[in-house]
Amino acid sequence: MSFSRRDFVKTSVLGAVAAGVGTRVQGEEHAAQEHSAQQNQQSGSYKRPIIVCAHNGLNYLEDAFAFLKSGGDTLDAALRVVKGPEDDPNDTSVGLGGIPNEEGVVELDACCMHGPTRRAGSVGGVRNIKNVSLVSRAVMEHTGHVMLVGEGAERFAVAMGFPRENLLTEHTRKIWLLWKEYHSTEDWWGPGLADPHWQPPEPKPAAKPQSELWQERYRRLEEHAAELGIEPELRRDAIHKVLFPPTGTIHCSALNEKGEISGCTTTSGLGYKLPGRCGDSPIIGAGCYSDQDVGSAGATGSGEENIKVAGAHTIVENMRHGMSPQEAGMDALKRIVRNYNNDMNKLRFVDMIYYILRKDGAYAGVSLWEGYQEGKPHKIAVHDGTRRAEKTVAMFKGFSQDFPPEPKVPEEVKKEYK
Q1: What is the reported pLDDT for 373?
Q2: pTM
Q3: 3-state class of 28 per DSSP?
Q4: Which of 140, 383, 395, 403 is 20 to 30 Å from 192 at the Cα level?
């Protein structure tokens, strides 16, 4: 699941959404205005080779594209992209330095599909191994299985030559300690959004104005962050990750000149999740699906919701039956909306971004909401000879909110601590 990392305080859903009503963005017209590359696609001007991935893979596209253009395998090219964030201890969304589960342990998930040979591999809940995307490929290449999980997946990785290492960096360990201090009575235990008895949070009456309460909350967290030894320049970011637990995932699909296509997805999952939780990222057909005859798709965002609609598989099947990449992704988003009977009180706590690549080079990025916060729109990264980031086409105007839900931060406090 998951999502783009959340950099700071997320805004509440705009206007009508805050009142419980969502407004759909007009699809084709909006796309034509926002995406020059998709204008080319509508005229049939598609390029191969091409790589499409989540925005956190943008900095790793040049090397991967050069490898792909020189005749490199499509899955190897996609893995070159996602391995970058896995190796980066400062990227808390995947791999080394990922935000841990509620017990302070980093658990990683990944899967891959190789279109030319129609094979797949997957691992879930892996501890102590940094490059789980490569482990998923090893499962595909060196076993008769598709998925390995937990301790068995870790032992397999070690047998294949992957080193064990502590994935919890000193920085993320301190963020986790700060989170434990602040969220000692709040966690991922139920009920969840899908529970028929779930109710949106009610604002609690307070003896002090909300702005004063939030200022006190920030000051308290800043003091505790200092006590934990978090560097002054990193404290604000650590506080944001505590108040608004991040999600993190990267998907990548690669298509070569011959029309061969592959995809992979890797993640550290929800921040402070329950131990053993697997989202959509290691699920073939949910977090990633590639079909050599049709195309490839992957997802970041609310993993539990994507599992329930088998999002990536649904998108590829839609394209098989004639839908464009954008239409195919929007249909999958509509299925998520339908699962909540269009209830905006719940859907504002859900978000999903799909990355879609058709075999002929046509592509799209679609999302449930425009972004996680104003000024931070959802984007996909693309390289077809030119590396660039493009905004997604959103189903709803406005911005999603975090789940578990947090109260809205007053504007004056956001400005003070931005």
Answers
A1: 74
A2: 0.82
A3: helix
A4: 395
